[in-house]
Design a protein that fits this description.
By secondary structure, the chain is of the alpha+beta class. Helices cover 35% and strands 21% of the residues. It is built from 3 helices and 4 strands, in the order αβββαβα. Strand 3, helix 2 and strand 4 form a beta-alpha-beta unit. The chain is globular. The protein binds 2 RNA strands through helix 1, strand 3 and helix 2.
RNA sequence: AAAACAUGUCAGAUGACAGCUCUAUGGAGAGGAAAGUCCGGACACUGACCCCAUAAUUUUUUUGUGGGGAAAACGGUAGCGGGUAAUACCCGUCUAGAGUGAUCUACGAGGUGCGAGCAGUGACGGUUUUUUCUGCAAAGGAAAAACUGCCCUAAUACAAAUUGGGGCAAUGCCCAGUGGUAACACAGGGAGUGAAACGGCAAAAUCCUUACUGAAGUGCAAGACCGUGUCUCGCUUUUGCGAGGAGAGUCGCGAUGAUCUGCACGGUAACGUGUAGGCAAGAUAGAUUGUCAUCCCAGAAUCUGUUUACAGGUUCUUGGACAGAAUCCGGCUUAUCGGCAUGUUUUCUAA
RNA sequence: GCGAGUGUCGUAUAACGGUUAUUACACCACCUUGCCAAGGUAGAAAUGGCGGUUCGAUUCCGCUCACUCGCU
């Protein structure tokens, strides 16, 4: 779980980010857009299309959150990012999530290195 | 000891690293169903019948506040007796059926209406028993007998139908008796019918009535406050004032409660009374977790031992039921891997 | 979260508790035509699922599954 200033919290912010650029890899969709703040804020979208059970949706979101948390120091500040996972056929485990997210961030040049 | 039945209860454990929410430095942090939203309440707002008290305007009256009552309308319940804040809930009990049994399942006021079911009668049909055929078996076909409510008699020689007369039983009806708080059960007496008479159905309060009973409607996105944006309108036209109102703001909303746990008493029980102790999640793009290790449970493969089904060991990119609080409680319903405890019944063994 | 509603052939649509479940378009076969369309004749195809009430259920009731809508 990220801190509250590192999270996207309001519907208007989400709508803004969806109008920005996007990239996808392995079922993970990444939207991003510049904001005028000193931190990057990240939001997660896992819809009812992924699973109708609330337990599975919560589980998948927590896995993505904890994967982001390990990568977070390498991300450049000043962006709004939204991550969503829609591949309803299987669960994305923690190790694969870390690999996919680092590759995605390298492609979009949001990392420091 | 085995099998079964009922009720209650647990919902993998420990550690390390990294992190979140509340509280404020000490801690606390998801369920039995948090689910479905099928019922019932609490709570909030809206409108509102009659009576009484009080305050203001005023003295006919109108408005506000508080308290009490009633049943019109609109609902709720429906064998009987209880429990509860309340219920389509719970407990006990009556009736019918299933089971060797513990136990389980089902139904329930009256009228009026319906009636393609049963019976009324011949056939058909149904149930039981016996024989026989097909078939591995399950089951199916054929034949016979008994029962399934009618019987006797006259007009009319016989049969059938119709009409008249007579008789018996069961259910139901009426009367009074015994047991039970009651529903009802048991055992008597009387009248009458051969028929929509009896029995059956009306499943979501509906066609009408009766008895008992509840004021109604909307739901926390209820609702209360604030009045903040490069917002809108009006006045002033610098500041400012008033109205509306986006809202990502505050409260409602996080435990002194129809509360939880233990004990005692009353009651067959649901439950009630008393007493001692506890204060146990409170998020809002939505916390209550992620990863790893060891153990535990289950599964698969394999090895060893012997009674060939058990015991022990090894391995695994194996799996860990159903499922995630959203205002809060009491029920019901649905989903669910496994385990534990208590009580009861049946069978077997031993004394 | 709170509340309301709908499921009938491939699609749209009808039904008093009593039929072999209606109609239109689409589909298939045949006739017609030199060929196609239109037209004619015949045909196949459905009550979301599981239980209950009833002599009998698309209809009434319960549970369940899927879908739709309203309230920031």
């Amino acid at each position: 779980m990220l801190k509250s200033n590192q999270r996207l919290c309001h519907n208007q912010d989400f709508m803004k980010v969806f109008k920005g650029k996007r990239h996808s890899l392995g079922g993970v969709l990444l939207y991003y857009r510049k904001n005028n703040l000193s931190t990057t804020r990240i939001g997660f979208v896992i819809s009812k299309k992924y699973s109708l059970l609330a337990v599975r949706r919560n589980k998948q979101r927590r896995i993505l959150q904890s994967a982001i948390q390990t990568i977070y120091p390498t991300i450049l500040p000043g962006f709004d990012i939204v991550l969503s996972y829609t591949n309803h056929s299987k669960v994305l485990p923690y190790r694969d999530a870390v690999v996919i997210l680092t590759e995605l961030l390298k492609k979009t040049k949001l990392t420091r290195i």
